[in-house]
């Protein structure tokens, strides 16, 4: 095993490395250096073992240390480390992965466009959607409607589609012709209403927006089946059927961003299948390769693909690493393993329901206003007063997140919401441990508050 000088690494890190989503000045020489991982655990340079309840960044679905994925990468790197899929060429890993993905996807989806990440997938979505309406003879249909507090990536198109106000405030303007509607966040924004009524109301804000803009301008609606980075916001059951009805009624394209929900996170291959919706486009990434190598894509439904193929001619779009052979080989092996080992069925039938029961016990903690989950996604709402559900001043989430690290677990904070998304291979015993460590972190936070 490699030895690391933690202090030296930290100094070099703060001197030279601009981290994503980090206040570099505040970080100083304090980065936590992760050096290895196995199963659901990561290890830092000081030898601490930490339960990774976030599966990296919602992506290490098969867990760490899978030799089969290492072997797939090595074999492909030796045989053909790189070639592209531009200008009428292709290679076996990209072809086989495309076939496999379209077998797993809902029936009306038979094509995939490969990218290197979720953000690139959403950039691709914007170009594809606008091209679609241009080919339909309605080029004025350019507006894409997203949701406040949605997350679709960090490229200009990804940040614009997303509804993260702090991202919009930095270095605008964002892309034109992107609009946002309300999110279906019952705990945060609709608690005085019945959840199903609230779900309908949130969905109908799409209809309102279409009417305000004029349907002749609206191209598509984009949303995550469950908002991940926004705080694991699980919509009421009434929400998605109403969204589907509105998209169908007005003939606009429905885009389900499956970057987190895809590949088993909620107990189906895709979140759209859980919610029984029929998206025209599904951006994917993360769990596609369990995060072992960077790869993403857009699953393209027949409505869009047929027009692009039949009438579109050359699509002037693509990335050097679209369908990169080593990434595609690892992704293909990852999908085979998820299938052969019945990982997703286990999430649906065994670990998801078990997690739901255990996670729900945290609702009795004095700091927790709500404990919700779906599949292997979970969230805790931190409140100062369980009677009124009054919130703490900002900062409680990051305080609790730091305490999680102290307690030996990675959880993420989104404002005052703590979220988890563990590897899908987590066992029932490990779920018990996850919940125990989460409780310990909450206790520590409560003690600090006095
Ligand atoms: N879409 C969703 C729903 C995401 O959660 C993310 C990343 O967290 C992205 C897109 C962007 O993916 P990437 O970070 O691979 O660009």
UniProtKB/TrEMBL annotation:
PROSITE patterns attached to this UniProt entry: AA_TRANSFER_CLASS_3
Name of this chain's protein: Aminotransferase
GO MF terms held by the record: pyridoxal phosphate binding; transaminase activity
Q: Where is it found, in Gene Ontology cellular component terms?
A: cytosol
Instruction: Show the segment(s) annotated as Disordered.
Output: 1-25
Organism this protein belongs to: Oceanisphaera psychrotolerans
Q: What cofactors does this protein use?
A: pyridoxal 5'-phosphate
Gene3D superfamilies, sorted: Aspartate Aminotransferase, domain 1 (3.90.1150.10), Type I PLP-dependent aspartate aminotransferase-like (Major domain) (3.40.640.10)
């Amino acid at each position: 095993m490699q030895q690391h000088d933690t202090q030296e690494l930290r100094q070099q890190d703060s001197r030279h490395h601009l981290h994503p989503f980090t206040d570099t000045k505040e970080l100083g020489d304090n980065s936590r250096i992760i050096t290895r991982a196995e199963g659901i655990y990561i290890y830092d340079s000081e030898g601490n073992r930490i339960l990774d309840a976030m599966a990296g960044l919602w992506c290490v679905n098969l867990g760490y240390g899978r030799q089969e994925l290492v072997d797939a990468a090595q074999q492909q790197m030796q045989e053909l480390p790189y070639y592209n899929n531009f200008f009428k060429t292709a290679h076996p890993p990209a072809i086989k992965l495309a076939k496999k993905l379209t077998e797993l996807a809902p029936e009306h989806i038979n094509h995939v466009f490969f990218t290197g990440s979720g953000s690139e997938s959403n950039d691709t979505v914007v170009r594809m959607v606008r091209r679609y309406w241009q080919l339909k003879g309605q080029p004025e249909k350019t507006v894409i409607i997203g949701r406040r507090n949605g997350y679709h990536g960090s490229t200009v198109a990804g940040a614009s589609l997303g509804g993260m106000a702090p991202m919009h405030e930095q270095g605008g303007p964002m892309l034109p012709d992107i609009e946002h509607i309300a999110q279906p966040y019952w705990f945060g924004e609709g608690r005085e209403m019945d959840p199903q009524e609230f779900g309908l109301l949130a969905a109908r804000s799409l209809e309102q927006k279409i009417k305000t803009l004029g349907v002749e301008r609206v191209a598509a609606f984009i949303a995550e089946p469950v908002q991940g980075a926004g705080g694991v916001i699980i919509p009421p059951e009434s929400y998605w059927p109403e969204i589907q009805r509105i998209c169908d009624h007005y003939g606009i394209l429905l885009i389900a961003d499956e970057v987190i929900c895809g590949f088993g996170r909620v107990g189906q291959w895709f979140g759209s299948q859980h919610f029984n919706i029929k998206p025209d486009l599904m951006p994917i990434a993360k769990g596609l390769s369990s995060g072992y190598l960077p790869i993403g894509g857009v699953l393209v439904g027949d409505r869009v693909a047929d027009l692009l193929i039949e009438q579109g001619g050359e699509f002037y779009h693509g990335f050097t690493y679209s369908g990169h052979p080593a990434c595609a080989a690892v992704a293909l092996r990852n999908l085979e393993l998820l299938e052969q080992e019945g990982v997703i069925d286990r999430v649906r039938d065994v670990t998801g329901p078990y997690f739901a029961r255990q996670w729900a016990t945290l609702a009795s903690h004095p700091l927790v206003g709500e404990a919700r989950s779906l599949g292997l996604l979970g969230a805790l709402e931190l409140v100062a007063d369980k009677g009124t559900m009054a919130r703490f001043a900002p900062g409680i989430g990051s305080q609790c997140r730091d305490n999680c690290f102290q307690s030996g677990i990675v959880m993420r904070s989104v404002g005052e919401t703590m979220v988890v998304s563990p590897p899908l291979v987590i066992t029932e015993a490990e779920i018990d441990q996850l919940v125990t460590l989460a409780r310990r972190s909450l206790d520590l936070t409560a003690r600090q508050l006095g």
